[in-house]
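Quick one: structure for this chain?
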Amino acid sequence: MQPVVKNKFTFHNYDGSKIVSQGFNQNAETDILRDLRVVDPAVDMKKIENKKDRLLADTYKWILDTDQYACFSRWNDAQPDRDPCQLLWIKGHAGTGKTMLLIGIIRELENKYKSDSLAPSLSYFFCQGTDTTLNNATATLRSLVWMLLVKQRHLISHVREEYDVSGPTLFKDGHAFYALSEAFQRMLNDPNMSPVLFVIDALDECDRTKPGIENVEEVDPQDCKRVLVCAALAFRPLSLCELIALAGLPPKITVRAIELCGSFLAAREETVFLIHQSAKDYLDGNFEDRLQQSGTAQGHADMGRRSIEAMSSVLKHNMYDLDYGFKRENMKAPEPDPLAPIGYSCVFWADHFFESGETSSCKRQLSDDGAVFRFLKEQTVRLWDPATGAHRQTLEGHGDSVTAVAFLSHGKTLASASEDRTVRLWDPATGVHRQTLEGHRGEVTAVAFSPDGKTLASASGDRTVRLWDPATGAHRQTLEGHGDSVTAVAFLSHGKTLASASEDRTVRLWDPATGVHRQTLEGHRGEVTAVAFSPDGKTLASASGDRTVRLWDPATGAHRQTLEGHGDSVTAVAFLSHGKTLASASEDRTVRLWDPATGVHRQTLEGHRGEVTAVAFSPDGKTLASASGDRTVRLWDPATGAHRQTLEGHGDSVTAVAFLSHGKTLASASEDRTVRLWDPATGVHRQTLEGHRGEVTAVAFSPDGKTLASASGDRTVRLWDPATGAHRQTLEGHGDSVTAVAFLSHGKTLASASEDRTVRLWDPATGVHRQTLEGHRGEVTAVAFSPDGKTLASASRDRTTLEGHGDSVWAVAFSPDGKTLASASRDRTVRLWDAATGAHRQTLEGHGDWVTAVAFSRDGKTLASASDDRTVRLWDPATGAHRQTLEGHGDQVSAVAFSPDGRYLTTNFGSLRLSFTSALSDQHRDKHPTVHSLYVDNEWITVDGKRCLWLPSDYRSPEVAVHGNTIVLGRRSGGLTFLETKVA
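Got it. Here's what it folds into:
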């Protein structure tokens, strides 16, 4: 039962002055009251009380303490700065006690105003659906007016004139409701009317709310029924244009049908919705009798079919006529929006077919040559992202068991707690580790973000709670006071209260802004293992090793009730989004669902083979995830208790689970030191090229393009087939991260550079290690072969042996004739050397950040340098003159190379057409046909400068290799993505 306050009526000019009687004939007044009376509501109320048993004060007193009732009770206070609250709406399902609650309120008001001559009067009525004399609008209005006139007889003047003409028929004929409505309005506007409170019970039992659709004359009744079917079965309220498409009716017919079904439907701001839950309940309960004899399954099948028809007729390529690469945030839908009529269909068509079950219509639509198959065959590319899959990625890095996980509200940050005494912050989209929060002197047991995302709280075995700034990682303050390990933390919905649970058997409430301790909740006989606030913030649940869950009032600290039933320690608690269901997990291997308002146990979810360590509801409340010591996560339907699926893959106990805000990603933490991300809808593992256990630091194609080498922070080089993505072999031997790889011109030798200060030479065909080149005193950052293959140059942070750079050397390259060596450095310069003598020729300056790569054109007349300043500079190596700066890169440029004809420059982002060409002869150019400019610009792949393919965030990387029409993206997670392009 939920009281709701709204503004409704306005009463006028009551100042407590004496009301003057109009001096009507007493007998005439009596006749009017006698003929107006249907029933004495006061007597009727006593009858209801006797029938339903004696009214207990405790059953209604609680409502008198609510903010809504307090606001309503002040409706007559004259406060110009505040609108009066003149409607108290009590809403609830049948049998929840609304009638007795209203009787209690009436009794309370009668007692309150009994001795006050200036107090408002009461007029009330109890609708009763089973009594034909008391279940209609006319009876309701007659009774309310009757009670009003009994107490304020001077208002009889407003019906006297009509009564003198019509007599008793004024209140009983077919126009009685309209005549009384006008008289009632005049009474309300009478300046001499004293304040009055109207109380009406069970308006939904008035038979005038039933549809009467069988008697519709202006529109075919079947059209009305079709509109009602769509409204009743839709998964969300429909816009008018969506309803027109789903009903398959002309717009005018649909609009008129909505008007005629006004007892069930309402339209506001172009949205059509059912007026009340009772309307939904009525339609569901009478669906086959009143709407569609074939049942709801066929109704869903029809809506699925019409959705396919609507999408097939409307959808087409590039409906908004946008240029390639147009950013979504800059998009504005045209008016009218061509997608508006099918917005609902695009999202829910499959759900309707699912709900239709095994109907013959559904089978026909889903057959091999059915409407759905034909639609998907034509439309899939524009409608669906084929990259689905369940297990998305594993986040590694903690040095001990991961104990908890939590998402920031916008879903772009994931926090994980560990027994290694740290909290790690991750990007869940890419798996990239952002920062580590250190400071706790014991294992970190729990983490929680404040609702505004500006504070992260961590609980620890060191008996403290630490508050952090998740944006910067800065430690703000430490909350001390618990006498034992802190096991859990939770923020109240407004973020102004923080609760912490502890093995000292208490729960403490804090002000997170100041760190001030507000109060301590005591009562558990065992350690408190978890805490959770209800969504409305009015209830705090605490789980304990004493096998119970306790419910508290966080405002006062009062203990409300204890939930008992688990056979072992309770390890976790979670509220469903609407707050009407509480889930508790236990070491007894079960999850229990409770009604937190009554404490009633609803059902027990069984199936885990180990203790249940954590529970979490999806944001839409339709899925419950439970983590267990049996190394699995189980997904349940909280409405039915049905087990949906089991997520397997962790190598040890699963300790925590959390849903991303949109509900499409589930994170699980485990004692195997990992965090796994899942798609809770499917459970299907997505195929990826994985193998490296560290970030990919460099990639290079062999000269013939048939082999791709990738270097990694996991100390290995991996060789791949770029045509199939197959992993061929792993080259192991380096003692630290591998930083660079390079093939000899004939492709039969591969060189790898490493932070272990060595260069290794390999046979890429067999994977055999040939030799190790030692001598550098710092990590080796780059390698390059001379064109004739007789010299290998290596760059290092030790700045030797060709000395002159003021900082680490990042890259080296030989000129085509082998006479010049170019070196790139962190000192923001490029130096040119005589390869034969080692003499320094000149220094090229101009970059604003580290220079990361250098390359000569095939004729040796142009040198390109790449930099972290996001530019590429072109130089004349003969004179050192700066020719051109190529700008617009979306990130640091880490690789450069010229196309064979010198017309294109390839960077780690792709190929760019140069505004001038190297001086190659026309005869030489003819041997190298023109290629398209293929380029990776951070989040876009462009062809000849036009954006063609958008890259999701976890596929963006500075490590990019382009060979012909093949693009390879190296990811920080250790994976490689191969993209084969076809450009006409």
